[in-house]
Design goal:
By secondary structure, this protein is α/β, with parallel strands linked by helices. Helices cover 41% and strands 12% of the residues. It is built from 14 helices and 14 strands. Strands 7-4-10-9-11-12 form a six-stranded mixed beta sheet, with helices on both faces. Strands 1-8-5-6 form a four-stranded mixed beta sheet, with no helix packed on it. Strand 5 and strand 6 form a beta hairpin. It is globular. Belongs to the TOP6A family. This is DNA topoisomerase (ATP-hydrolyzing). GO terms for molecular function: ATP binding; DNA binding; DNA topoisomerase type II (double strand cut, ATP-hydrolyzing) activity; metal ion binding.
Length: 358
């Protein structure tokens, strides 16, 4: 018995397919035929769902009236109150973020880590349900299968949680996908929210990657490998601020520190999907959801505008000039003003369907 895929109907991807065709035509004109090394599938993979809970929790008694544990009790209440605010505002933080809210109070990072594990165990929920994320670099989700160097078979498809980016990108083999696009997500919190919203299945077939901020080497190598193998369109979803633009430029153009290896790391075909500064006005995002540019932001923006490759990107320049003129920036979470799931339900699907990238 055949089952219909969960993703959108074929007509949804018409603009994406034309975009890919134009990218391939550009490659052929430049003399770069798509290399082999992977298999594109015509059908989607089977789905599997599961949540993993912290497995090494221990049970302790903490009493508010005990001199030995009163401080620990107070710290637990402090972190519980922060978790409550995160859940209420539908935002995320890392353990490192929690520690730096009051480093003098907590004393050291290990104390925070242990308390968060205790809370997770006490409430019998995974840490992500507390809206507290891990800080390991590089995650991938979506329609992708491959074999790692040691023979381990990895299937990223249909999972409720993401797969860590392999430590040896060169060693992976037998990559298989039918993805229509690769979405690079700047921040882990946004990536996790898209996973929670079942974005990869709703937009199937697709691949989603995050480098959790400034990408590490393996995340960049993976994106490059996907592009070189499949020539699937690659899009970035970053905050509408100079830092987000900088991260996007690293994927597309590389970084100064790794410029000697740019040919192995950069993907010139990367397109800016969002969050565009012009989107803020178009969507009537209120000013109190925006953030004023700091002096450091303005210096970073001026620096990017002066880079030679920006002259080849007039639409990028125009967006950055909008930001500079308004002297405001915005995080992707500003879209929650419209609705809590606006990003995954409306913003991204419309951008992908109608070609809203630059």
């Amino acid at each position: 018995m055949a089952f219909a895929p969960m993703g959108p109907e074929a007509s949804f991807f018409e603009v994406l397919d034309r975009h890919r065709a134009s990218l391939l035509a550009e490659l052929r004109r430049a003399g770069g035929e798509p290399p082999g090394g992977g298999t594109r599938l015509a059908s989607r993979f089977e789905d599997s769902v599961g949540l993993q809970m912290v497995s090494h929790c221990t049970t302790r008694k903490i009493k508010s009236d005990s001199p030995k544990s009163v401080q620990k009790f107070a710290l637990i209440l402090k972190i519980l109150s922060m978790i409550y605010k995160l859940v209420q505002s539908n935002t995320y933080a890392t353990k490192r973020d929690i520690y730096y809210t009051d480093s003098q109070l907590f004393g050291n990072q290990t104390i925070v880590d242990n308390i968060i594990s205790d809370i997770s165990c006490m409430l019998k929920v995974p840490r992500r349900s507390l809206h507290i994320l891990s800080t390991s670099k590089g995650l991938i989700a979506g329609n992708l299968r491959y074999i790692e160097e040691d023979g381990t078979k990895v299937n990223c498809t249909g999972r409720a949680t993401a797969v860590a980016v392999p430590s040896n990108i060169q060693g992976i083999r037998n990559l298989i996908t039918d993805a229509k696009f690769v979405l690079i997500v700047e921040k882990d919190a946004t990536f996790q929210r898209l996973l929670d919203d079942n974005f990869c299945n709703k937009m199937s077939p697709c691949i989603m990657v995050t480098g959790k901020g400034v990408p590490d080497l393996n995340t960049r190598l993976l994106v490059k490998r996907l592009w070189a193998t499949f020539h699937t369109p690659v899009f970035t979803l970053v905050d509408a601020d100079p830092h987000g633009i900088e991260i996007m430029c690293i994927y597309k153009y590389g970084s100064m520190s790794m410029s000697f290896e740019a040919h192995n790391l950069t993907v010139p075909a990367v397109r800016w999907l969002g969050l565009l500064p012009s989107d803020l006005k178009r969507l009537n995002i209120p000013k109190d959801s925006l953030i004023p540019l700091t002096t450091r932001d303005q210096m970073k923006l001026d620096s990017i505008l002066k880079r030679p490759y920006v002259t080849c990107q007039p639409f990028w320049r125009k967006e950055m000039e909008i930001m500079a003129d308004s002297k405001m920036k915005a995080e992707i979470q500003a879209l929650t003003f419209l609705s809590s799931d606006y990003l995954s339900r409306v913003y991204l699907p419309n951008k992908l369907r109608f070609g809203g990238w630059i």
